[in-house]
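Standup notes
- HV: blocked on the assembly model, inputs below
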Amino acid sequence: MSATPAGTAAVPDGLARIWRKHPNLVIGAAMFAAAVVAALAAPWLATVDPQAISPFDRLREPSAEFWFGGDLVGRDVYSRTVFGARVSLIVGIGVVIGGLSLGLVVGLLSGFVRWVDQILMRVMDGLMAIPSILLAVALISLTGASLKNIVIAISIAEVPRVARLVRSVVLALKEQPYVEAAITSGTSFPLILWRHILPNTVAPLLVQGTYIFASAVLTEAILSFIGAGTPPSTPSWGNIIAEGRTVFSIAPHIVLFPGLALSFTVLGVNLLGDGLRDVFDPRFVSRK
Amino acid sequence: MLAVVIRRLFATIPVMAVVAIIVFSLLYLTPGDPAAVLAGEQATAEDIERIRASLGLDEPYLVRFGQWIGGVLQGDLGTSIFSRRPVMELILQRLEPTVALTIASLLIAVLIAIPLGVIAAWRSGGIVDRLAMSFAVLGFSIPVFVLSYLLIALVSVELKWLPVQGYVPIAYGFGPFARHLILPALSLGIINAALIARITRATMLDVLSQDYIRAARAKGLSVRRVLVRHALKNAAVPIVTVIGISFALLISGVVVTETVFNIPGLGRLTVDAILRRDYPVIQGVILVFSATYVVVNLIVDLSYRLFDPRIQQ
C-alpha cells in the first residue's frame, strides 16, 4: 500500500483510495450490489405480480406505466426482469458454494494423496473435455429441470477448474520449507491443512469464485434460453428471453431488457473479479 | 513428425475413454429412474418400458457398457428415441452448418483479436489499449444470444442488409451461403475475440519488454517487422493455446447461435433433443463435440513446434 498522496486529508479516506487504485473493484462491486438489491427487494420493486396475465397488454411497448413493456401473454416484463434477478443470484451463489467446495475436496485429495491424484486428474481431464453447457444439458435431461438440478449440474461442470487450481497451490506449498518443517516436526495433518494450506487457497479461490459466479449466471441463462433450464413457472432472464424469441422482430423489448440486466450483472461480477485479482496478485497490478 | 503425431494421438485415448465412461455412466449415476424422466410426465408404463429397453437399462451396467462402447468404436452411436433413426446419421446430416459456423467464427475471432491485442500491447495504456480492454471485459459479459439479437435488430431489421435468420448450404451458391452466415459467425466471433485479445495483449506485453525486442528496434527495423516477426512469433504459443481453449466456448456458443438464427446444425439437433428428451442424441452429440475439442487441442499442441523449434517432445 502506498502512502496517502500529499494534499489529501491526514485521515486516509479508505474508499477514495481504493477507488483511485482499483476502480474496477468499486464499479464491479456497485453493479453487483445493485443486482443483489434487485433480487432481495423484488417484491417491493416490482410494479405488479410477475405472473399476472393481462391479455390487453400483450406485446405492449414500453411506456410510463409498463416500463419494459408486456410479453406474449401480457405479463409485465419489468416485474419479471426484477424477479429474474433472484434465479440468477441463487444459481450464481449455489454454484460458487457447490463448485468451490467440491473442487476444494478433489484438489486437496489430489495434492496430498499421490495414487488418488492419478485417478482424479484423469477424471478431471475427461470432464474438462466435455463442454460445460452440454454436460449440464445431459444431467438436466436425465434429472428434470429444477433450480436445484441446475445448480448441481453447473457445479459439476465447474469442479475441474477449481480442483486444478487447489491442486497446484497444494503442490507448490508442499515444497515450501515451512510446510516441510511442519510435516517433519510431526504436526498433525488437519493442523497443517488449517494453518498452512487453506489460508493460501483463499485469495485464488475468491478470484476464481467471482469468475465461476459470472459463468454460472451465463450458463443458467443459456440453459433456460434453449429450454433446459429454469421451468417457465419461475421467471428467469434466460426464459423471459426465450419466450420473446419468436416475436423478436415486432417486440424486441422482451429480449432486450432481461438481456441488459443479464449483461449488467455479469459485467459487474467480472469487473469485481478483475479488481480482486489486481488486489491479490501484484504482478497484474504492475502490468497496467 | 509422423511418429510424434501417432504418439500424441494415442495419448488422447485415456481422455476420450474417460469422456465415454462419464457420458455413459450419467444414465446410471443420476438419482431416480432416468427412463421415467425421459419418457415425460404423460407417459404410460409401456412408454417407460420401451425407453428402458431401448437404452438397455434393464441389463447389467458392464454388459451394457461393453455393447455401447463396441458400437461407438464402429461408428454406431445408438438410435434416437424420437425418430428411431441412427444417431450417427442425424449428426452427419447436421454437420455442414455447424462446421461452417465454427470455422467462420474462429476466423473472425482471430482476425479481430490478434491485431487488437498486438496494438493494445504496443500502445499499452493508450486509448486503443483502453478500448481493447473494455471490449474484452464486455465480450466476457454479454451473452452470445443478447449480442446476436442486437446485431439482428441493427443489421437485419433496421438496415435490412442481411437476412434475419436461416441457413443456405454452400452447394446452393457461395453468395447466399455467406449472407446467411455473416451475422451468426460475427456474434460468436466477437465473443470469442474477447478472450483471445486479452491473452494476446498480456503475452505481447511480456514479450515486448524483452531485450531482443529493444535490440531489434535499435537495429532500425520497422515497427511492423518487430511486432510481427520478433514479438508475435514469440508470443504465439500462449495465443494458440487460448485459441484451442476458446474452442470449448465456441461449442456452447454454437448451440445458442444456431437456436437464435434457426440454423439446422448440431446445436439445433441438441436443443430439439432436449425438448424431446432424446437422450441417445444428446449422448452422441456430446461425444462428437468432446472428441472434436480433444483433437483441436491435440492440433494446437502439435503446432507449438511450428512456432518454437525448441519444443521437441
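- HV (later): unblocked. Chain A is about 75% helix and 0% strand. Chain A touches chain B through 46 residues (CB under 8 Å).
- Next: hand off to the docking folks.
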